Amino acid sequence: MLASLYVDGNALCDLRGIEDLVQLRHLSANDNVLETIEHVAGLPLLQAVCFRRNRIRALDPLRSCPKLASVDVAHNDLRSRDALDAVTSLPNLEVLYFADGNPVAREIDGYRRVVVARARAIQWLDDARVDDDAHRLAHAYVFRGGVQGELQESLLIANERLIRERETHEAFPSACAFALRRFAVAVDDDAAPTADGAPSVDSVPFSARSHADANQSLPSPIA
After folding, report:
1. What is the DSSP letter of 62?
2. Burial class of residue 14 (count of CB atoms within 10 Å of its CB; 0-12, 13-18, 19+)
């Protein structure tokens, strides 16, 4: 069964017939003239879609594709906040390209914070990575008082970072002492005498061993 389909640049106005490809996981339909993506609704295994540079106006069909992890809908005709709600509701969304070329992104105050706060699994948005701190700050902004909530969370993050740094600094002398003890034990083991009471060969410096070996190989002096 077909798992990947690439139909970029084919002047397609819809994706009629694709609903039968129930094993489809990756779909790329960039640079067409799509106005609707209704035919992708219900594809149970779909994980990644690319619809860049089309004329799409709604993204509701994506709600019925719960495995979607990557969505690229930049440069379309998305004007309603419902379109953004549709993609941010996807439980496994990790990568989203949305802002470029879509009017609705410019109309949403704090667009990036809103997306990150609602798409809890997202790791990359438009042109930048989304780390754990960004998730915390966005969630605080959207759900805990706007700028004031975000400021409080940023202070908390900074304090946690200072605590971690102090703990690392305090643990450093102990780590050094432990390493020195291990080194001392290793040196003592190397210098331990053999059964006849002589130092082990490994404990004799290489230069000394080489000199002794060289002397043994010299011929006896001629009387």
Report:
1. G
2. middle
User: DSSP letter at 133?
Assistant: H
Q: How many residues does the chain have?
A: 223
Residue 186: strand, helix, or coil: helix
Q: Write out the two tokens for 186.
A: 């290793």
Distance in angstroms (rounded) separating the CA atoms of residues 125 and 116: 8
Q: Which residue has the higher pLDDT, 161 or 125?
A: 125
| Owner of token pair 């489809």 | 24
Rounded Cα distance between 206 and 62, Å, is 71
SS3 28: strand
Question: Tens of pLDDT along 31-40?
Answer: 999 999 999 9
| CATH 3.80.10.10, applies to 4-143 | yes
Sign, CA dihedral 81-86-92-98, equals negative
Query: 3-state class of 179 per DSSP?
Result: helix
Alpha carbon distance 172, 145 (integer Å):
40
Quick check: 3 and 23 in contact, CB under 8 A?
Answer: yes
Q: Quick one: DSSP state of residue 193? A: B
